[in-house]
């Protein structure tokens, strides 16, 4: 089960992980974007971190929605509305629960993914975060369906995420800033796909 | 990093404080969240023209707030779209009862954030339209990309639509004008050097001492191709001819449908410039290129437009839509009719653009 | 060398051709020798305001030719004083019968060339006065140097005297105003990078990645000291305080004595700024520094002038007197009275400075 | 005797020498000036060179005055009026002669020097061309007084010029652009002093 406390420590872990990887993500965005993805994500989760106290008394849905609102109003760029929508849809799907079953965890990730796709109109293969979120959600759904434990399922999903990140490298970007580069975007790892993987890893970390 | 700044994290706020100190007669800066409005408050009965985008393009947009141009501007972090809450607050502060027109440059982030902002403002009962500007012909198609970027045309459009708002155009008419101007404008840019964002402290792209980057946008992102530096005549010819010979460009842009009460996609086709067209010619510095060199560009550009039978009726030359301290330039040609020329000539009184009274 | 130019030898001519093409409504370029006059020809009955200097400082001076500012400008080679024949021809072309005031920046070459030019024009029966501008406080004394350089004040003086000429000031009154404004103005500059002249293709001085040069002029010459780059607050504080605390400055400047019919040296003492003074504050980019950073400078400068009890009544912020693509800035504070403020506010319509109508 | 043809070949040699030393002079001016002295001198004498035909029929005074006018209207900067005045005063002093005695050669150089000092108000020790022209004129005057031949006298003067150039190195500039540097102008050779030496050398070359 994913308890409310897990969710809180997940959110907190997101902040840590994005602080550690700020420069790394920005560097990835330098190659095929405008060199701000790490800074954007860090700014957003730092804001979440500062308001962390105010999340304590909330249920899972409210926590995730509150994270969403903070991201929307502090990240900016493409990733702000996208991750904002991601957490918003997750929170809406989670509702006023205090814990989630493995299946429900898969469901909120699915909702988040659909939100991102609705907002950004990207499909798998476009070299975006969707290229990580899609295999992650599919892996989660497969494994919880097969009755695996939450930790097992997420471990699997992290592997799928890692593969998803690697798979963005040869792709030609068709959405977001990297798309302007056309052929020249080949050979570079997508920053947003990478941050999506980090967010999943943070969830995994919060469970151990 | 060679910049006149204090701590990178404080750059936006401090520069806004400087603007406020310098132009208290023209504008008012709000700090939580960041937005800039005209000093006099909302203009009753006139459509409020609002724009915004990442910082680092100054004077655009904050420097264009004032009589005859914008009613409000939302500065984001450097090269990062502002957030919906800023835009929403700005819309509320600028609305004079006749609605709000958001001028949105076509970047994934800007478009999404302004959409969310429009929804928030509409929930408050403010009438809002978003018109997306996409004039950068360096981006060839919209099927396999995020579509053409909004660049130089934005400045001309903010000036002309600003005058139209003063003249009393309602939201629908102003939106139509804005849309037409966007379809009438085409731009292309190039860089000799990369800029450095304060947050990173390192060049956004590496470039050799004898190289230039063609088809750049305004965010320090790499362009569409790398080349050896050529003479200003060759560079200008390449850019001007590309603009003039650019094929019809078709794509879908989202606007709000006030009948259906939802976002709809409009398919729009921009027709190429043709012989006899009157144009405004805009030669822009990316920030680090001095105006003297822009005159070198203008000279060749005017020779070429002449040869193609275009008539330059007005021009603008200088650093108006910049990429921090990047060296380089862009050219914009925008077809205009007599009404648009009149609106161009109308008085404007902002920190970044001033004429008439 | 990263520049938008063709052959270095053709830069001046081609950029002038560009100016001519862009601003045919405002100005007329003469090519043999080079000078720029207003498009409408001489202004009858008004004193003609003429300036000039090396090229590379654009928009100064050519960009300041037009209604309410200069009547003519003489561009020299890059960073090299123009020659007497240019100035002589420009004076003849601009004279409207009320005489000519040459605004001369204090550099050995400019002063000597303008003196020879004045003599040539006087031989033609044109009444001419030369007023020398020397406002750069980085130069401490005039006994062991060529004296303070003419820098930022020049722009403000050309604007204010231009308005005074329109208002009908005669040569004597205009010369007196010009002299007083020069005594009222103080400037200081700094650079983060060196510029590169097209003729040399290499930086005029070497400077480390973490260094800045303090007390530079506008010719890519080294300044008075080298330092590690500091924060904009520290740099601005140092410059502003230096300007405010600058001691009385005494030196001799040559003017024409119409009674004695010869050049005479006038001993002049500039008094320091004092509490309660009204000033125009001018934050200038050396060319490569974007306006956003100038607002960072303005912010701190305004805090300091405030603390000293100076009242900034007007300001100018942007690249107006530049050193090609050099990164850096200068600050000018000029004490003004109500008449000067009125003249500052008067309409100006030139390529480089525009307001009112 | 300095014949009119010598004067013509001197002027021509000045052009050659200043073309050869264009970058060298500019480099000297980069250290303590504004990096244009070589370009300025070259521009002026190139103009003289282009108009060379028109000098042929003139007397020595007219040749030198014509050179002066060309320099004044094409060099600009500080060196334009200074060298312009230098040649103007030389020409005025020479008058409508077709040849000059050694003594008269010393006299026209004296007239040129005085013109430069009148125009620029520099004194020896200020780190300018005056620091070469002064010892040159003094050397010429001494030697022609002592009855030496023109070639001998000029050979001596070239040595004085070379010493004069070297002597500018330790000086602190007090005139012209270099004066802004104060102490920092020490240790650098003055560009204008150097071009003065080159102009004298050109005269020497025209006699052999
Ligand atoms: N339309 C889209 N749909 C999904 N993800 C997108 C889309 N556009 C961009 N992205 C993601 O956003 C990332 C860039 O985010 P960021 O750098 O923060 O914003 P910006 O591109 O505005 O600078 C990309 O690496 C990509 O993964
Ligand atoms: N007042 C002066 N009197 C004599 N020579 C001078 C004076 N000022 C400058 N010079 C000479 O002029 C030279 C510089 O000439 P140049 O570089 O062509 O002009 P500018 O200094 O205007 O760029 C100096 O090296 C110096 O020898
Ligand atoms: Mg980015
Ligand atoms: Mg961005
Ligand atoms: Mg010079
Ligand atoms: Mg020089």
Q: What would you say this structure looks like, in words?
A:
- The complex is a heterotetramer, with 2 copies of chain A (208 residues) and 2 copies of chain B (357 residues).
- Chain A is mainly alpha-helical and 208 residues long.
- Chain A contains 9 helices and 2 strands; from the N terminus they run βαααααβαααα.
- Chain A has a single domain (2-207), classed as DhaL domain (Serine Threonine Protein Phosphatase 5, Tetratricopeptide repeat, Alpha Horseshoe), CATH 1.25.40.340.
- Chain A has helices at 4-20, 22-32, 37-50, 60-72, 79-94, 102-120, 130-145, 150-168, 191-206; strands at residues 2-3, 99-100.
- In chain A, strands 1-2 form a two-stranded antiparallel sheet.
- In chain A, helix 7 (130-145) packs antiparallel against helix 8 (150-168).
- The longest helix of chain A has 19 residues, at 102-120.
- Chain A is globular and about 45 Å long.
- By secondary structure, chain B is of the alpha/beta class.
- The longest helix of chain B has 17 residues, at 291-307.
- Classes of the chains: A mainly alpha (208), B alpha/beta (357).
- The interface between C and D is large, with 38 and 33 residues.
- Bound molecules: adenosine-5'-diphosphate (2 copies) and magnesium ion (MG) (4 copies).
- One magnesium ion sits between chains C (79-80, 109) and D (34, 36, 77).
Topology:
The complex is a heterotetramer, with 2 copies of chain A (208 residues) and 2 copies of chain B (357 residues).
Chain A: E1 2-3, H1 4-20, H2 22-32, H3 37-50, H4 60-72, H5 79-94, E2 99-100, H6 102-120, H7 130-145, H8 150-168, H9 191-206
Chain B: H1 11-22, E1 27-31, E2 34-38, E3 48-55, E4 72-78, H2 84-94, E5 100-105, H3 108-123, E6 128-133, H4 153-166, H5 171-184, E7 185-191, E8 211-214, E9 225-228, H6 232-245, E10 249-257, E11 262-270, E12 278-285, H7 291-307, E13 311-318, E14 328-335, H8 338-345, E15 348-349, E16 354-355
Parallel strand pairs in B: 3-4, 3-5, 5-6, 12-13
Antiparallel strand pairs in B: 1-2, 2-4, 7-8, 7-14, 8-9, 10-11, 12-14, 15-16
Helix pairs in contact in B: 2-3, 4-5, 4-8, 6-7
The structure holds adenosine-5'-diphosphate (2 copies) and magnesium ion (4 copies).
């Amino acid at each position: 089960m994913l308890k409310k406390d897990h969710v809180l420590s997940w959110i907190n872990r997101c902040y840590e992980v994005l602080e550690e990887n700020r420069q790394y993500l920005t560097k990835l965005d330098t190659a095929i974007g405008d060199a701000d993805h790490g800074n954007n994500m860090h700014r957003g989760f730092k804001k979440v971190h500062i308001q962390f106290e105010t999340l304590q008394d909330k249920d899972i849905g409210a926590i995730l929605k509150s994270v969403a609102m903070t991201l929307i109003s502090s990240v900016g760029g493409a990733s702000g509305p996208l991750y904002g929508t991601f957490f918003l849809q997750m929170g809406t799907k989670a509702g006023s629960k205090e814990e989630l079953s493995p299946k429900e965890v898969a469901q909120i990730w699915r909702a988040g993914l659909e939100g991102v796709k609705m907002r950004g109109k990207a499909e798998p293969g476009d070299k975006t975060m969707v290229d990580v979120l899609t295999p992650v959600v599919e892996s989660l759904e497969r494994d919880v369906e097969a009755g695996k434990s939450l930790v097992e399922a997420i471990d699997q999903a992290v592997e799928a995420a890692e593969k998803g990140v690697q798979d963005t490298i040869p792709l030609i970007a068709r959405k977001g800033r990297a798309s302007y580069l056309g052929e020249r975007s080949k050979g570079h790892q997508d920053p947003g796909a990478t941050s999506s993987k980090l967010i999943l890893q943070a969830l995994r970390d919060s469970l151990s | 990093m060679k910049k006149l700044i204090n701590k990178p994290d404080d750059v936006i706020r401090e520069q806004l404080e400087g603007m406020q100190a310098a132009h208290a007669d023209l504008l008012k800066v709000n700090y939580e969240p960041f937005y800039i409005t005209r000093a006099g408050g909302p203009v009753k009965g006139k459509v409020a023209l609002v724009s915004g985008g990442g910082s680092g393009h100054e004077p655009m947009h904050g420097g264009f707030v004032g009589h005859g141009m914008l009613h409000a501007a939302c500065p984001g972090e450097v090269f990062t779209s502002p957030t919906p809450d800023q835009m929403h607050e700005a819309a509320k502060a600028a609305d004079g009862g006749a609605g709000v027109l958001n001028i949105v440059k076509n970047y994934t982030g800007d478009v999404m954030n302004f959409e969310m902002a429009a929804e928030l403002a509409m929930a408050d009962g403010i009438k809002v339209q978003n018109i997306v500007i996409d004039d950068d012909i360096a981006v060839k198609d919209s099927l396999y990309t995020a579509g053409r970027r909004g660049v130089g045309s934005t400045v001309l459009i903010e000036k002309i639509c600003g005058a139209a708002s003063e003249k009393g155009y309602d939201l629908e008419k102003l939106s139509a004008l804005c849309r037409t101007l966007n379809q009438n404008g085409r731009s292309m840019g190039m860089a000799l050097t990369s800029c450095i964002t304060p947050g990173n402290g390192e060049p956004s792209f590496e470039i050799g001492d004898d190289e230039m980057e063609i088809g750049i946008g305004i965010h320090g992102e790499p362009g569409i191709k790398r080349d050896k530096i050529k003479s200003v005549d060759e560079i200008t010819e390449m850019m001007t001819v590309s603009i003039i010979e650019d094929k019809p460009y078709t794509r879908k842009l989202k606007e709000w449908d006030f009948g259906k009460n939802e976002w709809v996609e409009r398919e729009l086709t921009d027709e190429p410039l043709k012989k006899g067209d009157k144009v405004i010619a805009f030669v822009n510095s990316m920030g680090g290129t001095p105006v003297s060199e822009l005159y070198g560009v203008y000279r060749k550009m005017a020779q070429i437009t002449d040869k193609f039978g275009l008539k330059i009726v007005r021009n603008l030359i200088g650093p108006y839509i910049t990429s921090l301290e990047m060296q380089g330039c862009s050219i914009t040609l925008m077809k205009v009719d007599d009404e648009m020329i009149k609106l161009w000539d109308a008085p404007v009184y902002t920190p970044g653009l001033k004429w008439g009274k």
